[in-house]
Model the fold of this input.
Amino acid sequence: MKIAIIGSGYVGLTTGACFAEVGHEVLCVDNDQGKVKSLREGLVPFYEPGLEAMIARNVAAGRLRFGESIAEAVESSLALFIAVPTPPREDGSVDLHYVEKVAREIAGVLHEYRVVVDKSTVPVRTGEKVAQTIERYSKQKADFDVVSNPEFLREGSAISDLMNPDRIVIGASSERAIAIMKEIYQPFRTPVLITDVNSAELIKHASNSFLAVKISYINMISQICEASKADVLLVAEGMGLDRRIGRSFLQAGLGWGGSCFPKDVSAFIRIAEELGCDFRLLKEAASINRQQRERFLKKIREEIWLLRDKTIGLLGLAFKNNTDDTRQSVAMALAENFIQEGAVVRAYDPKAMAKAKQALPELHLCSRGEEVAQGADCVVVATEWEEFRELDWLSMKKRMVTPLVFDGRNLLDREKMAAWGFTYRGIGR
Ligand code: UGA
Done:
């Protein structure tokens, strides 16, 4: 099928590449000329395992191309996926002006039936607004359907999440649109849930918020573990063995960050409020998330007292492993805190250093993980990169002023660290 993706950011580009991979003919458009030029040259503007190769493969096979024109997208494709940013406003609500602009542009050039699919994360009832906008701005009596098809991929595992999803949600009200959507997703051989548009939109915010609550729940348990000398790893294991609870997203740590959970939780609180519902549970989850970082900082201050003129080795800058994304990264927030309090931060991240340096030029970047330990009063693990486990910790210990390690992700082997002579502080243990 001929598909156009409008917006070649994280979601748009990976979705476009995966649609091409299963045999569809895909045009990814973006209004950023520079980005389109780079994509045509085979350059992907962010790090995602496997994506660059998948794009190259599908471009070479003639199934994937890039452009700037929404008119061309509407002309050439039966299904138009909107995958533009929906950033947060100051008050936490969602800024929908990119979605609205795309809807108007589609309306201006629409002259035969198209399915307009919203992939961006949007508040419930946005589909209704998109449909009204297309109706209002189309020059001829336009024939179209608006569908909600939320995306559940995670950064760092986007390709496998897209190729083997747990579910595909299609919110649509017309049989014609449902048939087209089913055909698009047929190669993925995954359970498809058909709902009305509003429910599909809600599924996305409800899912992300639930996962954020789950993490905040285990983080709160980690606080109780610290106060009662229990071990959150064992508690999480014991809880997770119950199939109704499940083991995933019970990793206690510094809290959730990234471009999705913080934004979506704030948005969902606002959306609920506008609908007359006070989502106190979600407000509390957000508050526990903030606390988690504060408590970690307190723990560091307790050990090394003042941060001023101290050297802190920081392992990890990305908001999670396998990505170069530093948006709303807890690691970056910590680095900023350390610097504000007068510490020197020697940092290393396998992928996110360029983006981190742009946002925080005061960082002293190191070319290897071991180097953050040079002259350090403590080393902090802030991102769950597997490779940090394999660092030469004994040589790091020799370079440190005091052998003190704060593991904000419970990544390292506590017993080994103690045997090597480190004072080790994890989370909830
Ligand atoms: C999240 C959702 O998991 C995706 O399903 C969704 O599609 C995406 O948002 C989105 O809305 O676009 P993502 O933000 O890429 O995906 O990353 P996650 O793997 O969910 O991690 C989010 C944050 O939670 C990270 O900071 C991570 O370190 C933290 N986390 C995750 C924990 O602290 N503990 C855990 O057990 C799991």
Summary: The radius of gyration is 23 Å.
